[in-house]
Amino acid sequence: MSLKKINNIFVKLDIRLALIFSLIFIVSSLLLSTITFVTLFTAIQKSDHEAIRQRTLEYWATFQHEGVHGLLSQFQEESIVGTTATYFIRFADIENNTLYINLPPEWESFDYSPLLRSRAPRSVEFIILRSTGERFNLEVASISFDPGFILQVGKSTENRYILRLVYFRIFSIVFVVLVGFSFLSGFLASSRFLRPMRMLNETVTTIIRTGNMDARIAESGRASELEQFVKSFNLMLDRIQHLIAGMKNTVDNVAHDLKTPITRFRGVAELALQGDGDVETLREALSEGLVQSENIIRMLNTILDIATAETGLLSVSYHEMDISKILREVAELYSFIAEEKQISLETDIPERLTAVGDSAKISQALGNLIDNAIKFSPKDTRIHLQAGFEEESIVIKVTDQGPGIPEADIPYIWDRLYRSGNAKGTQGFGLGLSFVKAIVEAHGGSVHVESVPGKETVFSVILPGRRM
Ligand SMILES: Nc1ncnc2c1ncn2[C@@H]1O[C@H](COP(=O)(O)OP(=O)(O)OP(=O)(O)O)[C@@H](O)[C@H]1O
Ligand SMILES: [Mg+2]
């Protein structure tokens, strides 16, 4: 897939996420405004009804104390003062003849004839009258006073109608602005959120297209989970690059190391065939061929051994092992090679350290550590092989005064086929340490290294074991 196509997918993803944000916003703001509106509207309606009820009760009290005349003169007073300007008031006698009516002029569109016909109940009851021209109603409370007088008090719902109108007008303006804002901010947020993904894709595509493993995602330096992901991804690329470099190195080494015995073998065979067929010469050529082919087989076996140890398929035979004895034997075996290189191999091995496992494999693994120490150290230096018992475990340390291992290489030296830059000019496949690690871990132990380049390098092996 081309970069352009991938970018298009991300742009579409940005828009999709922004649309989802906006949709969530629209639904929640509609819900919120509906709840707000209903609550507000109901509260105002309740307070309007309460005001009508209150006024009705006041008139009832006047009627009780001062009779029809008292009530009529209160109506007169109120209409002069203007306190009843927004109220519909009608007072009728037993025959339903209107004794008093207050009808605000703007309410003439109401057909209030049903009120003239209706009989009033004993307790306050609301009747709703629709207007013919307007969009609001008239809410009228009616009640009958003994011995049959009728009082009707009403108020229009115009204030609620206006509230609804203003509310919807303001809400629709704010709503349109906010939806636009939420889409825009959603788009910006999601494109910012997806930026590392986009860069990740660009990096991967570049690597696939060019085969160049140097491409990395730019790190912003901010502390976030996405940034952590970017860092881990870059780290993974570093590791892969290191491994590929290591493997390439080793394949070169293997080819080089195999080439020498095979070329020698061919040279000897050619010489023998060119000769006069003397049995002794042929015999010598064959025996040289045997030695060289054994070298090749040994090399290939090491590679296979590592492969099985690394994949966990290696079968370990478990027996009680005398670690002290194994260490002394290994030291003895390597003392000749050390001597040849004028390196002194010192030991500090206590008696009776025992563990359970495969003594041949453990011996081979420890041999690899001493082999490395000798191989990488210059002459006239010292190697110290030391063993001890700490916290239920046997701790074996091999210290050398060689060039050491650069800090950046430390995490990789245990990898199969990895050889550090300091291994240039020495023989090997980069398999020794991975064999050590695989064997020690198969015995439930662990391996560690500490190196101060130019000073000393300490390889430690920790094995579960006992001191007898
Ligand atoms: N004692 C040491 N001093 C310095 N560098 C070391 C030491 N031991 C290991 N290394 C580094 O770690 C690398 C891996 O070691 P390892 O034993 O796996 O491979 P090798 O010795 O190069 O090859 P092989 O063990 O297969 O013969 C070495 O190539 C070397 O760069
Ligand atoms: Mg080695």
Tell me what you see in this structure.
This protein is of the alpha+beta class and 468 residues long. The chain has three domains: 161 residues, Beta-Lactamase (2-Layer Sandwich), CATH 3.30.450; 86 residues, Helix Hairpins (Orthogonal Bundle); 149 residues, 2-Layer Sandwich (Heat Shock Protein 90). The protein has nine helices and twelve strands. The strands form two sheets. Strands 6, 7, 8, 9, 10, 11 and 12 form a seven-stranded mixed sheet that branches. Helix 8 runs antiparallel to helix 9. The chain is rod-shaped. The two termini are 66 Å apart. The site of adenosine-5'-triphosphate (ATP) has 23 residues, from helix 8 and helix 9.
Strand content: 15-25%
- What is the CATH domain class of the largest domain? Alpha Beta
Radius of gyration: 50 Å
Overall mean pLDDT stands at: 86
What is the number of domains?
Answer: 3
Outline the low-pLDDT stretches. Answer: none
* Helix percentage range: 55-70%
Main pleated-sheet profile: 7 strands, mixed
Q: With helices defined by DSSP (H or I, 4 residues minimum), what is the helix count?
A: 9
The CATH level-2 architecture of the largest domain is identified as: 2-Layer Sandwich
Features:
single chain; 468 residues; alpha+beta; Beta-Lactamase; Helix Hairpins; Heat Shock Protein 90; 3 domains; seven-stranded mixed sheet; five-stranded antiparallel sheet; 9 helices; 12 strands; rod-shaped; binds adenosine-5'-triphosphate; binds magnesium ion
Strands, helices and their partners?
Layout: H1 3-81, E1 87-92, E2 98-102, H2 113-117, E3 125-130, E4 137-145, E5 149-156, H3 158-193, H4 195-210, H5 225-274, H6 279-310, E6 319-322, H7 323-340, E7 344-348, E8 353-357, H8 359-376, E9 382-390, E10 393-400, H9 432-442, E11 446-452, E12 456-467
Parallel strand pairs: 7-9
Antiparallel strand pairs: 1-2, 1-5, 3-4, 4-5, 6-8, 8-12, 9-10, 10-12, 11-12
Helix pairs in contact: 1-3, 1-4, 5-6, 6-9, 7-8, 8-9
The chain binds adenosine-5'-triphosphate and magnesium ion (MG).
Magnesium ion (MG) binds next to helix 8.
